[in-house]
From TrEMBL:
GO terms for cellular component: plasma membrane. The keyword Transcription does not apply. This is diguanylate cyclase. It comes from Pseudidiomarina atlantica. PANTHER family: DIGUANYLATE CYCLASE DGCM-RELATED (PTHR45138:SF9), REGULATORY COMPONENTS OF SENSORY TRANSDUCTION SYSTEM (PTHR45138). InterPro entries: Diguanylate_Cyclase, GGDEF_dom, MASE6, Nucleotide_cyclase, Rev_trsase/Diguanyl_cyclase. SUPFAM superfamilies: Nucleotide cyclase. Keywords: Membrane, Transmembrane, Transmembrane helix. The keyword Metal-binding does not apply. Pfam families: GGDEF, MASE6. Its cofactor is Mg(2+).
Length: 343
């Protein structure tokens, strides 16, 4: 539960960081483009000055935000900069040309960057101010109901919202994929973890029972003398050796097999559509490749393999028990060998 909460917190921070950078980039581009329009098309130099201030603020915040420790502060500064510019623009434009529509970009930004509580508070305050501002304009004459400025305001707000929601959805999907990947991955070795291996074995059983799969083999692999390696070199170096061994297993088994950390220094290899003989030959190549690799201080690492076949006539539990017994036999017979399960 703690590991899951830690993963969610880490991805929440990463998600918020991605959104913050996206908001600042949108702010950067829109401030520059709208500022140019206000200068060269509408001759609205006062409004343009605030656009360019917004551009400078976004640029400075992008440069400032180089560390996730600054995430909360930068998020607040970005939100306040957006709110300030929206309020100033509406006041200078006196609410004309649908300028009040710009308040609509604030809620998604403050909710995404500051969370539900502060997002709700700031949005409510801004909406209350907007209602008050509109009420003050009711008795004033409106010289123009629709013109180029109004059309551009509507268009710009729609485009800004499109970009904001697009970036939000993209970052959310990325964060979900990363969280899902980490939830099935062993943190030390980057192989599948025990929980996901159980899922893969259940899927294997379903495929076997449905007839979609005719045969398979299950292999339990153990690093020989790993306790002595830990005692000799220490647990930190032992972890590095374990990581190197896991990387070799992953690279060798990438195309035809599924590999994960079963527990401690043990790994589980799932070989769909392998006969027992094919699995033995496959594991023998893997064993030789591992044994030929030099590790820390020219250490040679060896592994023992217990191989069991899996077919419709036996359960996953029976296959695992047989593979475990075969592994025990491999260790009893001198280690650094591949042993096949007997019926």
């Amino acid at each position: 539960m703690q590991h899951s909460a830690s993963l969610q917190s880490e991805h929440s921070v990463r998600h918020q960081s991605t959104l913050l950078r996206a908001v600042l980039r949108i702010m950067l581009v829109f401030s520059l483009l709208i500022g140019a329009l206000n200068v060269f098309v509408f001759n609205a130099y006062l409004i343009a000055s605030f656009n360019f201030i917004s551009f400078a603020a976004a640029a400075l915040l992008l440069l400032y935000f180089n560390d996730e420790a600054k995430l909360n502060r930068t998020s607040w500064l970005a939100c306040l900069a957006v709110i300030f510019n929206v309020v100033m623009f509406i006041n200078i434009a006196e609410g004309q040309n649908y300028s009040v529509l710009w308040v609509m970009i604030v809620p998604p930004i403050v909710f995404f960057l500051l969370g539900r509580r502060m997002g709700a508070l700031l949005s409510a305050l801004l909406f209350a101010y907007t209602v008050y501002f509109i009420a003050q304009q009711i008795d004033r004459p409106q010289p123009e109901t629709l013109g180029l400025g109004a059309v551009l305001n509507v268009l710009e707000v729609c485009v800004a919202l499109w970009f904001i929601y697009r970036f939000y959805e993209g970052s959310r999907e990325t964060a979900y994929r990363e969280l899902k990947l980490q939830s099935i991955t062993d943190k030390l070795t980057s192989l599948y973890n025990r929980s996901h291996l159980d899922t893969l074995l259940s899927d294997l059983q379903v495929r076997m029972q449905s007839g979609a799969l005719k045969r398979a083999c299950i292999v339990i692999i153990d690093i020989d003398h790993f306790k002595e390696i830990n005692d000799q070199f220490g647990h930190i170096q032992g972890d590095k050796i374990l990581q190197n061994a896991a990387r070799q297993l992953r690279e060798f088994t990438r195309e035809r097999a599924l590999i994960g950390r079963w527990g401690g220094e043990e790994f589980l290899l799932i070989l769909p559509n392998f006969t027992l003989t094919e699995a033995r030959d496959y594991c023998e190549q893997l064993r030789k490749g591992i044994a030929a690799t030099k590790h820390f201080q020219n250490l040679t690492l060896t592994m023992s393999f217990g191989v069991a076949d899996y077919n419709p006539n036996k359960s996953i539990e029976q296959a695992l028990i047989q593979a475990d017994r075969a592994l025990y036999c491999a260790k009893e017979n001198g280690r650094n060998r591949v042993e096949l399960a007997t019926a």
